[in-house]
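[Meeting: bench + compute handoff]

Bench side (C.D.) handed over the final construct sequence. Compute side (W.E.) agreed to return the predicted structure before the next meeting so the bench team could plan truncations. Sequence as handed over:
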Amino acid sequence: MRIIGVIPARLGSTRLREKPLQMIRGKFLVQRVYDQAKRARRLSEVVVACDHEKILAACKKAGVKVIMTSPNCRSGTDRVAEVARKIKGDVFLNIQGDEPVIHPGTIDQVAGLFKDKTVLMGTAVFPLRDETDLGDPNVVKAVLAKNGDVLYFSRSAIPYQRQQIKGLVFYKHLGLYGYRRGFLMKFTALKQTDLERAESLEQLRVLENGYRIRAVVTGHDSVSIDTPQDLAKVRKLLGG
């Protein structure tokens, strides 16, 4: 099975100027994500999918494999789908371009979900350890079925505890997705749904149309960079 890791990179950002090219200890952000993804053992290939010549030039100079995609792509998923039309592969992983400490083991775990031929789409969750994250709408929560399928994603604290259940685990959703190629094309052709618009979470389009998403529980959290403050925290975390 040929599994391709795709890192979408869009130059424009409302909260952090030219985010993919921000430097962290001598490497630009997307380069660090690429290096982490290359350490995953189950990926046949890793490529950055960019929308601007600046990213293209920086990647080529750094020896990062890169493909130019349309600036009109609405989302990272659409950018991954464009790559899937250009590169041969059975499964495509959407690896967030703003998570420079994504663990290679988590990438391998999501890739491993596709050994089950019934899985069309997969993702990862991490057990929440900070209760303040439950009330943070920027931290997406997930509820899982017994078999690992996702029942729902929300920016709200779910499940709501009318009764306190000892040992109940809350899960943070990590924005790492895997798709079988055929399902990726089907997903991107679906119209936006009400739940997707309400929560601003595109994965709800999948659930609302009756498809399943299998999740793996990882022991490795990840950190996304959206603001200058986030960037400063990650620089400090990585020693620079």
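W.E. noted at the follow-up: The longest helix spans residues 29-38. C.D. will use this when planning the next construct.
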